[in-house]
């Protein structure tokens, strides 16, 4: 039995109730089932007017905005001002530590660009053994989830840690740990709110795959409940053609929406469910919803992670950490430059919890 670490509250005037003990599976908290999150997602379809869905006229401009060279040019004049608003989580670690003191940390981690570097071939986005060790140690101290746009099975094969929660397809496919313990929760699917879209997603995947064959470097990735059209290796001259092909396919599927990530176009069901909803669902499933002694930390690098950052901001609890080398519009509180700094931050967090635990 492992007790998840919380920072000590030596200076607190009122004692903070300790979090309930949990095994490495955190299974002393009753998990919510797929039907529960499906009902929540069906409370309202995604408002396409405000959801960040890409319109025809803005699609190529949005694709350019995800290019590092465009971002760097636009950010060159205000880097110092941006860093004042979003300081390094490493350099300001004592401030993070003070905010988390006496509270139960719950860790949420994106994968691509956060635990592994962004690479040209999405299938080669392998994390280092040092990073895997850092994540493993974090999970031994705090409840930990990987929240990724990747398919859940795929990101699990990259991370290879059975004691974590995995939220794939931007949170539309959540499953608990598969480590065997006295409180086994193996193969327990917690949340799949978009199951009805699976046939449509497969149909669109096959259509887009055929369309992208004529565009050198383009690749369509099937992430089960969503699709990713990667254009990182596509010549910029081909972007107009690529975006036109994607739009043409989606015209026949009004229940799907198109959003953008880092050098990738994302096709998702137009339900009201994203990484922010996944964060809320996991906190509730773990028994932490509505508690003031909880400190969620979400680390991510993509626009899709902003949904989780906004949830933390609205909760008034925890922090969001954006991984980026260039200034970006964000609601995250802190920043880290690259996965290597994420690893250092995780190790520092574990070391601090062990020292003060």
UniProtKB/TrEMBL annotation:
GO BP, sorted A to Z: trehalose biosynthetic process
Keyword Hydrolase: yes
Keyword terms, alphabetized: Hydrolase, Stress response
Pathway: Glycan biosynthesis; trehalose biosynthesis
Cofactor: a divalent metal cation
GO molecular function: trehalose-phosphatase activity
Catalytic activity: alpha,alpha-trehalose 6-phosphate + H2O = alpha,alpha-trehalose + phosphate
UniProt-listed Enzyme Commission number(s): 3.1.3.12
Keyword Glycoprotein on entry: no
Record family assignment: Belongs to the trehalose phosphatase family.
Its job: Removes the phosphate from trehalose 6-phosphate to produce free trehalose. Trehalose accumulation in plant may improve abiotic stress tolerance.
The name this protein goes by in its record: Trehalose 6-phosphate phosphatase
Taxonomic classification: Eukaryota, Viridiplantae, Streptophyta, Embryophyta, Tracheophyta
